[in-house]
What does this fold into?
Amino acid sequence: MVPVLPIVPFEVPAGFERLVEMAYDLWWSWSPEGRDLWASLDPVEWERTHNPVHLLASIEPTRWEQIRNSEVVLDRYHAALDAYDWYHNRETWFDRAPNKPSGPIAYLCTEYGVHDTLPIYSGGLGILAGDHAKSASDMGIPLVAVGLLYRRGYFRQEIDLDGEQQHFYPVLDPRQLPLLPVASPTGGQLRVGIEFPGRTVHAAVWRLQVGRVPVLLLDTDIPENHPADRPITHQLYVAGREMRFCQELVLGVGAVRALAALGIEPAVWHVNEGHAAMSVLERAARLVEAGETLENARERIRNQTVFTLHTPVPAGNEVFERGLAAKYLGPWAARMKADLEELLGLASDGAGDRFDLGALAIRFARVTNGVSRRHGEVVTADWQHLIGGPAQAVTNGIHTPTWIGREAGALLVRKVGRSWPTRLLENPDLVEEARSLPDSQIWSMHRRRKELFLTYARERIRTQLARLGAAPDELRAVDQLLPADRLTLGFARRFATYKRATLMFSDTARLESILTDPQRPVQIVIAGKAHPADRHGQEFVRRIAELAASPSLRGYVVMLEDYDARMARYMTQGVDVWVNNPRPPLEASGTSGMKAAINGTLNLSVLDGWWVEGFNGKNGWVFGSAEPNGDWEQADAADAAAFYDVLENEVVPLYYDRDPDGVPVGWTERMKESIVSTLVRFSAHRMLKDYWEMAYLPLGTGLFES
It folds into this structure.
């Protein structure tokens, strides 16, 4: 579907040619056979980079000679090839579907968290988009995704001696990443032009292959552009508002033009959050140029479009000054044969001086949805005047093969088969078999994941301390941190203010008494980034770093810097309890808790987002109020007190209640309940099935056309 130029920055010996094919397909990122193969080629380099393209380019001739003579490596190569070919050639869920759309689904999003090798994501939205693409691939749904290639990625975080967050931006070289240039029908790499005031900005198109799903990434850092325009796609969530508008113009317009240049005619357009909303203006302009009236064009677009909102927080919804939009959108008004004020009015949210991309997308979408049942209610309350009725709700899900622990994943392959995520979707009762697993087996698998995480965490702490100038004895003492027999709580996410990262530290004396109980100690591992423009979030980082270094909490609270998808996998699989305490109802979904739950990590959370649907009284705990409270100070105090009560009186006793073999039977029963109640229900496969039934199939088969 998406041709690429055959440009490969390395050569491999005869007999290993298909390593190149697999290196450029992110299938390996959720395949045990794929990851085992790369690790066997060069264990040290793989552990350092987790990037097969860089790995293959760095292998010396003498190492290739060793590889050719290694029975272990050859076995892993052929095992990976077998798994890869099986994956791409098997019958899929889509193949068995009785009805199908007339064309592919175009999925537009500003960030994609497919793998930590490509840091073009900041948090939940990007990880969700990456999981969406992976599950579409697993299910065979014909989806093509479009986003931006951020040459400076999202920032890397370091925390200095004073607890201040420092920001560093990596420089991404596409030649060292699993990216290939998309071939233009006229030769060379495909480029699309977008009209800017007084000039045209060009964007090169790269392909990131995610199994069966191509993700097209637009890149303005190319020689054809003026030096002032090349940085447009450099930084994800750039702070400057006009530069942000330019990014989203490139994303929306460039996505439509790239797909058109490739001859791809989507049956459905999924605008995932308002960042990509200006795609509807380009689509409308094309239809008007082809002879449609603007009203008819808008109706045709509505009948092919689903729009998903991901947050009720104002900072997460893109709103610009009306004058800024007017500066750039004149060409689209002319092509749409509309007055500029009429065009700007399509993005009015009721305030005359605002250009709201959410409002624009809603006006051009037949289906508007939130990402949990509760969030659907919030979207309805905020936007019903534009939607014309209640919003739909599709609760987010996670790509379970990516996020489940290795031992549990292998167990599912043995019990259910290689295509276990799809088989469980079609036969959800199969997951009930987890209840019959011995408590000792569940506990043993968890202990293994926990030990791996704690080892990883200690190494991260040692690296942090070494950078800050710690002495050798202090670095050696890190080995004694985070004992595996302690109850371990995890808290990791973006440090947006509404997520209340410091809530558990509201009463440090009481927290200290719980953590330092000599008979039943508790430790907390915290990680997270605050946006460089979010001063309140950065203050949260500083405050927690200060508390973690304080004499009373040192050794019981640790903060890991530079949270990313790799750390998230370790944490959600390895801690005992996952804590979440947003201010209701501002947590639209919250997929990190799902990642923990499918691994038997028990959630201790406020009833908001997905946990309203996920909690059943036996698979974790709730605390605090589920309803919004305008008195934030009083609400925070009450919720903190409730957190301490549940932790001290319910969570800690159950964890330390062991049978003669040292197994916490009551705890493992909750672990089983957590796995059974979430593994299918909160999978991205279920999410895709919901989108299919609610939007993709009816929109793609013309159900709404008159």
Remarks:
- Residues 439-467 form the longest helix (29 residues).
